[in-house]
Write a structure and sequence with these properties.
The protein is 27% helix and 22% strand. The chain has helices at 9-28, 30-36, 78-90, 177-182, 199-204, 206-222, and strands at residues 58-63, 66-72, 96-101, 105-108, 120-122, 136-141, 147-156, 169-175, 188-195. It has an eight-stranded antiparallel barrel with strand order 1-2-8-6-7-4-3-9.
Length: 256
């Protein structure tokens, strides 16, 4: 009986085809995909930190009926606020009194009812400050009708829209409106104290404040009233620190 040799050609061909297919799959598979994929976008930058809001500048008004607090609206009425802060620091409202009340307001003006400080200030207006309710703090109009009075201010106890954009508001009551409502003519304004840092505001209007104080001191003397507290002196600017420290002198060589 004759045995035939097995035909190995088809098996070799199949193995070769499998090898080629495997190589082709590897060439088009995950390695190629990783090579051709677009680069990932860089991470987004972190958002800039929001600067902290400036602390509000407050004035606490101590009266014979209790205390109320007002917030100075420096952003909307910087000139009026600078003037008011200067007057408070000089003590013009200390031991004064409420001299006028109506169904709309309670008004105070300084040492005496008819006091003229010898200067006026520019009126400032803002759409965010309207006489739409109680608690609006405003400077009275000056007699010329074009400026604000230097010292006379009032607080509203109800709305008065006809004053909008005519009488300048510079602050709002932030606490104690019930005390304002109870005030009557003759009630004492014992003192006003500031709460916050007015230094940037005073520095911004230093030239105007100096002129106001000159007029104010002359008006107090003319009215034969006691002098006010001295105007606060601006803080001295510290000397600049040199960028390069002075050179240390070299040690002289020792004598032989």
């Amino acid at each position: 009986m004759t045995h035939s040799k097995p035909n190995r050609a088809p098996r070799a061909t199949a193995v070769l085809a499998l090898a080629i297919a495997t190589v082709a799959a590897l060439g088009n598979g995950p390695i190629a995909t990783r090579r051709d994929a677009p680069a990932a976008p860089p991470p987004a930058p972190a958002p800039a930190a929001t600067p902290p809001a400036a602390a509000p500048l407050l004035a606490r008004v101590q009266t014979g009926k209790g205390q109320f607090t007002i917030q100075l609206r420096v952003a909307e009425a910087p000139i009026s606020c600078a003037n008011f802060v200067n007057l408070v620091r000089r003590g013009i409202y200390d031991r004064s009194a409420v001299h006028d009340t109506t169904r709309v307001l309670r008004q105070c003006g300084g040492p005496v009812r008819s006091f003229d400080p010898g200067y006026v200030i520019r009126r400032e207006f803002s759409a965010r400050l309207m006489f739409d309710g109680p608690g609006m703090v405003a400077m009275q109009k000056a007699p010329d009708g074009e400026h604000a009075h230097g010292t006379q201010f009032f607080v509203t106890v109800k709305e008065q829209p006809r004053w909008n954009l005519d009488i300048p508001i510079f602050a709002t009551v932030s606490g104690g409106q019930e005390v304002v409502n109870m005030l009557e003519v003759g009630d004492a304004i014992e003192r006003i104290e500031l709460d916050g840092d007015p230094a940037p505001l005073l520095a911004r209007f230093a030239k105007e404040i100096a002129a106001w104080n000159t007029a104010l001191d002359a008006a107090m003397a003319q009215a034969k009233l006691p002098p006010l507290r001295p105007a606060a002196e601006p803080a001295a600017t510290p000397p600049a620190v040199p960028a390069t420290p002075p050179a240390v002198p070299a040690t002289p060589p020792a004598h032989p």
